[in-house]
Amino acid sequence: MKTINQEVEDRIARHPCYSEDAHHHFARMHVAVAPACNIRCNYCSRKFDCANESRPGVVSEVLKPEEAVRKVLVVAGEIPQLSVVGVAGPGDPLANPEKTFATFRGVAEKAPELKLCLSTNGLRLLEFIDQIQELNIDHVTITINAVNPQIGQHIYSYIFYEGKKYKGIEAAEILINNQLKGLEALTEKGILCKVNSVFIPGINDQHMEEISKAVKKRGAFVHNIMPLIVTPDTVFERNGVRNPTSKEIQEIQEKCSGSLKMMKHCRQCRADAIGLLGEDRSAQYTKDKIMNVPIQYDPIARETIQQELELKVKEKSKKKQEREALKQRKIESGSSSLRIAVTTRGNARVNLHFGHAKEFLVFDVKEKEIKFVGVRKVQSYCVGKVGCNTKQVPILAETAEILKDCQMLISSGIGKAPQKYLQDRGIVSIIQSGNIEELLYESSKYYKYMNHMSVEYV
Ligand SMILES: C[S@@+](CC[C@H](N)C(=O)[O-])C[C@H]1O[C@@H](n2cnc3c(N)ncnc32)[C@H](O)[C@@H]1O
Ligand code: SF4
Ligand code: SF4
Predict the structure, then answer these.
(1) Any residues with Cβ below 6 Å from ligand 1, and which?
(2) So which residues are the signal peptide here (predicted)?
(3) How many domains does the chain have?
(4) How far apart are CA 222 and CA 214, in angstroms?
(5) CATH of the domain at 166
(6) Which of 226, 269, 281, when mutated, tests ligand 3's pocket best, judged by the most ligand atoms within 8 Å of its CB?
């Protein structure tokens, strides 16, 4: 039986925004069918429909639902990694519900394997919960920039709700109330929800942790704290609000990560973006082109390619989780010193290739203190003519077991395969030759930095 975590993993394994590992392999597209909006955020401008501008709210052309469905089929035929189709503007999808749902219906009918994704300010969410569920829209993003109306009133100029315009604190109250209730209603139905919060210096920067906690409580799956992009012709631009620094974003993400999983790979895409998250191929798919090229959509070929990609993503995620768990165990097991193994053929130097080592010297290093722990005997990894990149798994497994309490290994050389094998088991290997003591000091300083990185082997 699958655990809840496995089920969620399966659901997000092909979603480039919900799964960090998937974003290297799977592509998304936004279809710009929703031009109108029912609120006014003080940072948003949709006036610039320039092909060179890449930020939310920007599009080259707004499409009718039937044009959007055709575009999806053309793109799906040419980009087999396409797994998600979203409506994210350029205005608000739920301020244009007929166009939005007609598009989703058309895509679900013609290309049912594509995941559907909706990005909204949440003002009208509660009205559409059933439709969202019926259409199998499995992923919804809600932008929540404040959970306190005192703060919200400085972010939203006004809202249009049930035929009436509201301003100030009253507008913020209605919006926040609807967003949080909408979020709760969606998560109760098992729909995965991501919350976007635009980080606005001097306005909601001190409020982010409260937002994170509030949305976690209502079942949000991931929190995407995104930097404000100060845009011409907006209230914030006129008031001199600045863009946040990347350090500020990193710090707030770290602070909030205790309460909720953070999305750190958002590219703040255009409302008509196409491709892998790092790229934008929207200029290739103009209305003119999509209406005139043949559709080459082949669901079977697409599925074969996507299954392979999904396997890769799942393998990567599993390894990452194992590494994290190992790191955690090592941190919990306690000492603030670092246990380091070195290879040597004598002279108090690291001067031996990992593959030729029949023993390792193990040390505990704590600031300026080095304590010799002992010698660990092993079978050497390279036997005769067998090279270091050839997998000698049983020997390697034994070595990894013998060094399992070490966080680091220093040797004069090591092949890629054993390096990766050890890395996957929480042992970072450094290639260096020289005096053992000096290398132990140096490398222990270096480890602090390496410990925050996860080395990727593609
Ligand atoms: C263009 S909106 C479309 C969806 C919907 N109207 C909404 O606001 O959630 C997509 C995302 O971009 C964000 N966004 C729009 N303009 C921005 C700006 N100038 N700086 C940072 N984020 C912005 C929105 O807050 C939202 O999270
Ligand atoms: S809700 Fe979205 S589209 Fe509307 S003003 Fe805010 S950012 Fe722009
Ligand atoms: S804007 Fe962020 S969440 Fe939306 S498609 Fe781009 S990367 Fe994904």
Answers:
(1) 37, 43-44, 56-57, 88-89, 91-92, 119-121, 143, 196, 198, 226, 228-229, 231, 268, 271
(2) none
(3) 2
(4) 12
(5) 3.20.20.70
(6) 269
Starting at the edge strand that comes first in sequence, how are the strands of the sheet with 39-41 ordered? 39-41, 156-161, 164-167
Angle of helix 393-402 relative to helix 416-424, nearest 10 degrees? 50
Where is average pLDDT lowest: 153-162, 278-287, 380-389? 380-389
Q: In this structure, is residue 118 part of a structural domain?
A: yes
The per-residue pLDDT for 269 is 86
Look at the pTM and tell me if it is higher than 0.80.
no
Which residues lie closer than 8 Å to 406 by C-beta, 6 or more apart? 339, 340, 341, 362, 427
**What angle separates helix 299-332 from helix 416-424, to the nearest 10 degrees?**
70
Q: Ligand 2 in contact with 92 (CB < 6 A)?
A: yes
Q: Is the pLDDT of residue 203 over 60?
A: yes
Tens-digit pLDDT profile for residues 333-355: 555 688 999 998 887 889 999 99
Around ligand 3, the residues with Cβ closer than 6 Å are 17, 28, 266-269, 277
Pairing mode, if any, of strands 359-366 and 115-120? unpaired
Residue nearest to atom 6 of ligand 3 (CA): 269
Starting at the earlier edge strand, list the strands of the sheet with 274-275. Answer: 222-227, 192-199, 139-143, 115-120, 82-87, 27-30, 274-275
> For residue 218, what are its two tokens?
């209502």
Same domain flag for 40 and 98: yes
pLDDT tens column, 298-338? 999 999 999 999 998 888 888 878 877 776 766 665 556 88
Please give the residue range of the domain that contains residue 382. 333-456
**pLDDT digits 0-9 by tens, 212-244:** 999 999 999 999 999 999 999 999 999 999 999
Residue 302 lies in a domain: no
Q: What is the DSSP letter of 361?
A: E
Q: How far, in Å, CA of 347 to CA of 286, rounded?
A: 68
Distance 56 CA to ligand 1 centre (A): 5
Mean pLDDT for 405-432 is 91
- The two most distant CA atoms of the chain are separated, in Å, by 84
- Read off the pLDDT of residues 113-159 as tens digits, 9 standing for 90 and up: 999 999 999 999 999 999 999 999 989 999 999 999 999 999 999 99
Ligand closest to the CA atom of residue 87: 1
Angstrom distance (rounded) from CA 207 to CA 209 = 6
Same domain assignment for residues 41 and 135: yes
What is the per-residue pLDDT for 458?
Answer: 27
Q: What is the DSSP letter of 410?
A: E
- Measured from the Cα of 16, ligand 3's closest atom is 8
0.95 surpassed by complex ipTM: yes
